[in-house]
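Intended use. Records like the one below are meant for learning the mapping from a protein sequence to its folded structure. Do not use them to infer anything beyond what is encoded.
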Amino acid sequence: MKNVLIINGHQRYEQIAEGKLTKLFIDTASDFFTAHGFNVKHSVVESDYSLQEELDKLAWADYIVFQYPVYWMGVPWITKKYIDEIFSGGMNTVTYASDGRSREDASKKYGSGGLMQGKKYMLSLTYNCPESEFDNKEGFFDGLSLDEANVATHKLFQFCGAEPLETYAIHDIFKADLDIESELKRFKATLERNFLSGK
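Structure written out for the chain above:
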């Protein structure tokens, strides 16, 4: 039986970002994993979390689902605080041993000192930005793909040795005609590809 840690990276702002959409995706993922026999644990960055408990959950997890809204082209600041505290706190035990380089072995590359080999992670993002801005040389992101625009979060996990799964993102979340049922179907299909296809 596989273990999944779902990290709620939401930071609440009254009337603008109250966390309902993030919760909907987390609840949907939890139901999906439970129905398919996975063990599930949760972390919430906007809480009074314990460093050791969070590290224990990272060590326990085979998979990590990182669900968060993209604020100003990155993770919310409280989520960055969580990352800095937890991933730095796991040095030599859970997350990384070094940056990978060695004075004795010049072939060892920067970013190869992670301790999370064998673990896989999935980013699940909520965006006000329309999907059309990605993979579009005339768009805001100058032709970058969704994953390229979120390279900092990907490199965080990859620095620690974890492997990426397919990213999910919902776009234009403030549109009056947002079809949430269709989006949830797309989200579940992404979960199926990532977690039920033998990866």
